[in-house]
Design goal:
Helix content: 55-70%
Radius of gyration: 28 Å
Order of helices and strands: HH
Shape: flat
Number of helices: 2
Number of strands: 0
Largest sheet: none
Strand content: under 5%
Length: 74
């Protein structure tokens, strides 16, 4: 049992050490090519709507959580 555990520990250590090296060697330098940008401003009106919905959701959750009618003093 001890040998199996030591072998597993050694293999996992080798795997952790060698994975960044293998990943770096696997990447090849690629040319960066730009893409056409058409209608990129089509969702510009959604910029303020999403934060408003998020704030509204947070307020509604806070109200739902604090909806207790019991007195705070014993």
């Amino acid at each position: 049992m001890s040998f199996g555990r030591s072998a597993l520990l050694g293999l996992s250590a080798i795997s952790l050490v060698s994975s960044p090296v293998v990943a770096q060697a696997a990447t090849s330098p690629a040319l960066r090519v730009g893409s056409d940008v058409e209608d990129s401003e089509s969702v510009a009106g959604m910029g303020i709507l999403i934060p408003i919905i998020a704030v509204l959701a947070i307020v509604l959750i806070a109200v739902a959580v604090n909806d207790s009618d019991s007195p705070t003093s014993p």
